[in-house]
Amino acid sequence: MKVLYIAAECKPFSKVGGVGDVAGELPIALQKQGVDIEIVIPLYREKNDNRNVSFKPLKKYRVPFHGKDETIQFYKSDPNDFPVPVNFVSNATYFEGKYGTPYIFSEKIPFFDDILRFSFFSEACLQLIKDKQPDIVHVNDWVLGYLFGRMAMEKLPQRRVLTIHNIGYQGNIGIETIKGWHIEKILADKRVGPLFLDPRKEWHSVNALRLALELAHRINTVSPNYCQEITEPENSDRYFEGGKGLDEITRRLHEEGKLIGILNGFEYKFRPEDKEFNRILGTKAKMKQALSKDFTKPDAFLLGFVGRAVEQKFKLLTEKIDGKSVLEHILEIPTINIAILATGSPEYEAFLKILKEKERDNCSITIAFDREKANQISLGSDVFLMPSLFEPCGITQMESLSNATPPLVRWTGGLVDTVRPHIDAEGTGFGFDGSTKSEVLRNLISTIKEALNFYTNRNGEFEQLQKRGFNERFLWSTAAKKYIEKLYKPAMNET
User: Fold this and answer.
1) Separation between Cα atoms, residue 153 and residue 149, nearest integer Å
2) What pLDDT digit, counting tens, does each position of 35-63 carry?
3) CA dist 458 → 138, 227, 402 (Å)
4) In sequence order, what are the residues at sequence separation of 6 or more whose Cβ sits closer than 8 angstroms to the Cβ of residue 485?
5) CA–CA separation, 73 and 175 (whole Å)
6) For residues 374 and 363, what is the distance between their CA atoms, to the nearest angstrom?
7) 209, 246 Cβ separation under 8 angstroms
8) Closest to 173 measured CA to CA, from 189, 152, 197
């Protein structure tokens, strides 16, 4: 079975979010299961990037795109650098200079630049598919939806597999905006064109993710619970994101057996052994002491938050109850300290700056990207806070579990699949939800109080909770077997 695995990012070569983690880890596990797999990603070069590319140069092509002939140079990774072969797509127009990073923020028209860049990437990959003749083309998210459209138009025989990491990103853009663009020919195709239209007719737009969904032979999300959630309509009355306008399509595909959920794996640094657990507890105590040195009560219960200060991760903490934000209510709970590390959108950073200026004696706020500090908080906190609006899978809760730090999560998406309630015999963390906005927010606060009480008054049970989380294992080998059995083999059997 020969697979071409295509993504916008892949660690260690390029990484922004979860796609980069998965692309850098899943293909290795699939290779170990006997899959003949190669990765394809753009070769990004930022301004003044004078790297001498040490990769092996392959073929060079000229491809007509957006009114001009673009030069594409393919490179191959050194097998000593990465166990799975990586094919890099190099182009000066779309992957260098101001476009030298995986994603671009387009101020006037959302996705404008990335739609141009990744529809070009799709055109480049089309040539690679013709050269390599894989059995399966496996793509990630909306950015490669154009590739499935072009494959269908050219009647390429390869089976098409799609992984959805976040259904909220769909690549919508107005039909009028793409007049004269290369992707307009996808819309003009009698068979494929209707599948490119956004289902919300009043939007008058095309939707790359919808195109990928409709043309894929098999589709998966990165957790089973998220798979179920995206088949349901959005409900803003209870902070439920659902399928973000694509729920009728995802529900149909789920009922047809084409859409499933497969939980992501995690790269563990140590084995689940007693001596490692005891070592972690010793390290945790020292790390907590370092994090708490500036608090008035350094031995108090320490709640940690590490994440992007964006709507998905941070909104619930800024929402107001009785005239105060949820985070302020939490800070008023006696004997609680909070360590926050976050950076993100201006509105949430401004919220944190105002809170920081109040100089509370039980709150530490760092507005920055600091990997070392992130590890310290994940390891040194007593409980790790993750109040997501939605979470397709999540990786930070897996990391906190491995650090013997029970997570406190919103019961949504992959958090449901990876954390078990502390009241269960096999519990590993804490969770909350609600049927109304007010209930969700109040339950978040009350669950933190419950975690504090459990930590303070049931110390022996809390340590058992830590140990069960530490022993938990979400393995890429398990995920890889499911990709083969539930996606690749069924896709190969499609008529």
Assistant:
1) 6
2) 999 999 999 998 666 555 578 999 999 99
3) 48, 36, 21
4) none
5) 31
6) 16
7) yes
8) 197
With 0-12 / 13-18 / 19 or more C-beta atoms within 10 angstroms meaning exposed / middle / buried, residue 105 is exposed
Tens-digit pLDDT profile for residues 221-263: 999 999 999 999 999 999 999 999 999 999 999 999 999 999 9
| Conformation bin of residue 381: beta by default, left when phi > 0, alpha when psi is -120 to 50 | beta
Q: What are phi and psi of 323, to 5 degrees?
A: 85, 0
The CATH code of the domain at 2-265+477-492 is 3.40.50.2000
Which residues, other chains included, contact 288 with Cβ-Cβ below 8 Å and sequence gap of 6+? Answer: 302, 380, 381, 382
CA gap 489, 486 in Å, rounded: 7
Strands 320-321 and 324-325 come out as antiparallel
Task: List, in order, residues 6 or more apart from 152 with CB less than 8 Å away.
Answer: 191, 192, 215
Dist CA 397 CA 263 (whole Å): 13
Residue 146 phi, psi dihedral angles, 5° rounding: -60, -35
Strands 301-309 and 205-207: what pairing? unpaired
As assigned by CATH, the class of the 274-472 domain is: alpha beta
The burial of 108, by beta-carbon neighbours within 10 Å (0-12 exposed, 13-18 middle, 19 or more buried), is given as: exposed
Could you give the 3-state DSSP secondary structure of residue 145? helix
Backbone angles phi, psi at 205, to 5 degrees: -135, 165
Give the number of other CB atoms < 10 A from CB of residue 66: 15
Q: Do 152 and 175 form a contact (C-beta atoms < 8 A)?
A: no
Percent of the residues in the chain that have a pLDDT greater than 70, as a whole number:
98
Q: What is the pTM of this model?
A: 0.95
Q: Which part of the chain is CATH 3.40.50.2000?
A: 2-265+477-492, 274-472
Question: Measured between alpha carbons, how far is 131 from 253 in angstroms, rounded to an integer?
Answer: 31
Using the Cα atoms of residue 307, residue 308, residue 314 and residue 318 in order, give the sign of their dihedral: positive
Euclidean distance between the first and the last CA atom of the chain, given in angstroms as a whole number: 17
